[in-house]
Amino acid sequence: MISSLTTRIFAIFWLTLALVLMLVLMLPKLDSRQMTPLLDNEQRQGTMIEQHVEAELSQDPPNDLMWWRRLFRAIDKWAPPGQRLLLVTSEGRVIGAQHNEMQVIRNFIGQSDNADRPQKKKYGRLEMVGPFSIRDGEDNYQLYLIRPAGSSQLDFINLLFDRPLLLLIVTMLISSPLLLWLAWSLAKPARKLKHAADDVAAGNLRQRPELESGPQEFLAAGASFNQMVSALERMMNAQQRLLSDISHELRTPLTRLQLATALMRRRHGEGKELGRIEMEAQRLDGMINDLLVLSRTQHKNALVSEAIKANHLWSDVLEDARFEAEQMGKVLEIPYPPGPWPLYGNPSSLESALENIVRNALRYSHSKISVSFAVDKKGITVHVDDDGPGVSQEDREQIFRPFYRTDEARDRESGGTGLGLAIVDNAIQQHRGSVKADNSPLGGLRLTIWLPLYTTHSD
């Protein structure tokens, strides 16, 4: 087996081309209708018939009035069983031919007229043999034999030989399996590499030993791919360890700060400065938690996926959000609730993504929030609208970045950490979906989630 992809393509291309040319050039020579020399036994039979016809004519003197009858009698008498004899005079007259055979006979006579080298040729179900020289006094005739063809070609084969373009097309079709095998053998490792790349893009960082096989070029690409996956996995693990270590180191002084704040409150009572310190400490604690959540959601290997229905997935989230809205004196509408639509993913991650967006809408809305669901053949669309201050056009694509804050009403004073929408965006992308921001019909911000439906053909 040729291990180099370049050499394999080059060799198979020229092999196929050589086969096509060989077939196109050689097949016409295999046509049984070609003019061919006589076999030895056929030559002896023709010579024997020639001698018998000459002897017959020598015993029957010529008659100027009925000269052609004696020729008929001679060829009828010595024609082999199931065959017929023809005589062609020096003037070109054909004795013994049937009218419907004249075109074939003239064709053969035009190609074989040398008695020293008699030949034979097939015409459909007939075969002509000759010529043999017949001497009748001062006249000379050429003797031809018409007999049934021993084996006749199919009409389709004859059509191939008669039409070179059709022969070329059939030859190319015959060579197609070889070319298809070449294409399949080239595409197979490419497909493996593509599926492996899709898995890596989805966060599944595992090596693929099967990629390190096949042609040298794909083998080298597979080895480099596995090395890349190993490097990415090491980087992700290092990032996880770094964030864990940072959070652990930050939690210790943060806990001490909270403890010191509580002691100061006990000794000196409440104060504006203490309240400020406590609020910032709580915010810092929430930011650390969100950083850890973001880090975990970016690592797809931590997610355990399963098939689940949309209404089962989000019903509790919507009920809790409705209750919270009532406590805040706001209205949460669900004009189109989710149905039993199939999804595939991590339930906790998908549930948290919608909860984060709905809580975001509750936080910034003035009095009204709307959550609606829609489905089509490809996926599920979720719209979350609020009547809050909204977000400018320039900021809509940036709000999904970690720690990004707008200069408008949705700012640090709202109590957020700037990581909520980044967590949502990572979770939705891991499930091959998308999330975007737009103007809301209610006057505030609309966040739209799209997730693909789960089918048996999914990943």
Automatic annotation (TrEMBL):
Q: Which residues cross the membrane?
A: 6-27, 165-184
Q: Which Gene3D superfamilies does the entry link to?
A: 1.10.287.130, Histidine kinase-like ATPase, C-terminal domain (3.30.565.10), Two-component sensor protein CpxA, periplasmic domain (3.30.450.210)
Residues of the HAMP domain: 184-237
Q: Which reaction does it catalyse?
A: ATP + protein L-histidine = ADP + protein N-phospho-L-histidine
Q: Which InterPro entries match?
A: CpxA, CpxA-like_HATPase, CpxA_peri, CpxA_peri_sf, HAMP_dom, HATPase_C_sf, HATPase_dom, His_kinase_dom
Instruction: Keywords in alphabetical order, please.
Output: ATP-binding, Cell membrane, Kinase, Membrane, Nucleotide-binding, Phosphoprotein, Transferase, Transmembrane, Transmembrane helix, Two-component regulatory system
Protein localization: Cell membrane
* One of the record's GO cellular component terms: plasma membrane
What SUPFAM superfamilies has UniProt attached to this entry?
ATPase domain of HSP90 chaperone/DNA topoisomerase II/histidine kinase, Homodimeric domain of signal transducing histidine kinase
Membrane topology is: Multi-pass membrane protein
Output one GO MF annotation.
phosphorelay sensor kinase activity
Domain annotation Histidine kinase: ranges: 245-455
EC numbers, comma separated: 2.7.13.3
Q: Name one Pfam family in it.
A: HAMP
Specify the domain of life of the species encoding this protein: Bacteria
Q: What is its main location?
A: membrane
- Name of the protein in question: histidine kinase
